[in-house]
Specification:
Layout: H1 6-24, E1 76-78, E2 81-83, E3 96-102, H2 111-126, E4 131-137, E5 141-142
Parallel strand pairs: 3-4
Antiparallel strand pairs: 1-2, 4-5
Amino acid sequence: MRGPNPTWRIVAAALLLSAARLYAQAPEGPMTPAPDAKIQQAPKIAVRSLLVTTPVTVRDDKGEMVHSLEESDFHITDNGVPQRITHFDLGGDPISLVVVVETSSRIAPLLPMIRKSGILISQTITGPTGEGAVVGFDDHITT
């Protein structure tokens, strides 16, 4: 007496795996929550600011910095609403700046270019009296 045909076993196993794979796939389209599910809303943050500092660096076609601009050369808007410039200075005000950079493996090839921008930030934005920090993150935060 002979046992079952081995080809039959292979076909049965393939059918079983195919059926299992169909059930393992994610559903198509957006997933809608159950009607009674409580949906968490993002918190709203409201801040009233009396003064916003907007550092600007202007360069000409040759890449040289332009130092001859006056207050009247700038027009500031906030969501389309013109804002009054209350303080105009060509530099010198100290600024504190934190740059947050993702350092995961998918961003790693870009990190050498990002590192080169450090000198630009320290010389043109923070200046000699400002402070700056770079915070890298992936699964953990490093400073």
